[in-house]
Amino acid sequence: MSFVDTPTDSEYEDRLEYPFHSDPYGSDNDSVYSVELEDLDIDALQDEVSVLFGQPCIDISKLNEGGFHKIYNLLMMDGSEYIARIALPSYERYKTESEVATMKYIEQHTTIPVPKIIHYDSTSHNSVGAEYIIMSKVQGVRLCDVWNKMSTAQQKDVLSQYIDIVLQLKSLEFPQIGSLYYNERYKSFEIGEAIEMSWFLDERAIISDVHRGPFNSTYDYLQSAIQKESIYVKDYGSKSDQQHDLHDLDALSRIVTSLTQSQSYPSSETFVLCHGDLHSSNIMVHGSTITAVIDWECSGAYPLDNLCNYPIWLNDDAKTTSEQSISNNHMRDFFKAEMESRCPEFIDIIERDSSLRLKDVYHCLFAAFWDRERVHDVVRCLLH
Q1: Interval 109-127: pLDDT, tens
Q2: This protein's superkingdom (predicted)?
Q3: What is d(CA 95, CA 21) in angstroms, rounded to the nearest whole number?
Q4: Domain that holds residue 309
Q5: Is-above-0.85 flag for pTM?
């Protein structure tokens, strides 16, 4: 469907462990990015919800807190339950409106299960004192909490459904890079500013002298991201590391130019809808059935390469046991075989033999605000 109709073992990839857009603390109760909402009025939220559903909300309990949201369970008088996502101050209006638009677009154009948006307010100038989204509560638990307890047959069942989800995302093509919004005037969806952590964390949200999207090409997107990070380093970064950081960013800019001007670079690009953090913590399951994909706050249209990855939870890390590693390899083989039978291009992109790829530059830019030394190591590997 088009928009207009509505890991290898190379050294540098070993250093890029987390997914693009990913919030490393997205499911923790004590995120390093979390801040208190001084003006949050839970009683006002309870009143708003009671009016919305025409019955008393008899209990509000906090379920979780991620990098940019507090999550509350809403219990109504008739026993029904809903979820309230309260946005923490980060990137006002745009992040909430993009998340809502994306979930509605997914609901209208795919069979991917997502929570149903019931009501939202994208301004903090309300009685609640914060931006918020009220949505349906989905059945099930997080896949990350039960994956290792599943039988092989159940894991394969989940992966088959995951493949279907990814291929539906692949079918949603867009003309530009950026996040999805709904234009009330024209009653249509459109691509606008890119919403992701690397663009609004800390003082990055107030940097004005940089284009935030939409972008017509990967080159434009990455060069703007590099420009943004360079401004941040100069104006807000550590003075002792400034020269070192700017040297790395300049090197990344040259790498992007070299890659996009090479003869092997495609003359036209495909941008598809990417979740941004399609990890097992954002997939809800009941038994071996995927009941919802949640947390679409940093999703958007990005190059096809960014969508084409093995399931993130099948990657080994420092906590992976030898038994789990064997299981991960087995499931990766299953995923590869199943995906090759349905979409050979997907696996071709994953295993493309290239020592330098724009996706790796992208990951490096994400790491720029998280681990400067890591960026330096990756740049060194990319250049040699």
Answers
A1: 999 999 999 999 999 999 9
A2: Eukaryota
A3: 13
A4: 1-26+139-384
A5: yes
